[in-house]
Amino acid sequence: MWSKVSWNETNYTKLINELKFMVDDTYREFHLQIIPGCMNFLGVRMPQLRKLGKEIAKGDGRGFLTVAGHKYYEEIMLQGIVIGAMKSDIDTLLKDTADFVPLISNWALCDCFCGGLKGVKQHYDIVRGFLDPYLRSEQTYEVRFAVVLLMDHFTDAEHLSDLFSVYDEISHTNYYVKMAVAWGVSTAFAKFPSETMTYLKHCKLPDWTYQKALQKILESRRVSQEDKEQIRAMRL
Predict the structure, then answer these.
(1) How far apart are CA 125 and CA 105, in angstroms?
(2) Nearest-CA neighbor of 30 among 40, 17, 45?
(3) Is the pTM above the cut of 0.90?
């Protein structure tokens, strides 16, 4: 059994062996079908990875990050979970985040990592400045990371207007970036339908992203039927 309080190559190998013991072949085949760019995926389910990651973070999470490898998808996912679960000040959290972002190679790693970064919530101005280079990046998953992080933790009344400005300014044309923006708009609509409806009437979103945002709003269970009727009337 591996130890969460003392990390070295031998202990880390024990963790990898435990991951291999958790493999679910059926889940692996399904996962590979829905996540392009998912390399060296063992087939461990997310609830098990989250449980492991939180347990590691309770011990020597920093030591784990020092020895962790990148061979398997699950290794990278665990690092993201540990970064989010460790108790860190905002400067340390953002440094760890900057180290992790280059490892993101698909939407699942991106979105799971962003969702776990709850430590950013009380530091909007610092986080917003940190994200600026990522929002302007030419790298697909750097931009998606920035968009999803803002959506996950700052879709609130105080920051809604700025998020709309961010969405309008995204120029990256990759599918996974445009879908992230559409997702962000639909999330805003579910929480703030009136404000988001006003935004949609004057937004600068590309047509494709705009239509996808409307589609995702219609698919949401958190949107009223009355609002959905208005959205349907706005579709091409």
Answers:
(1) 27
(2) 45
(3) yes
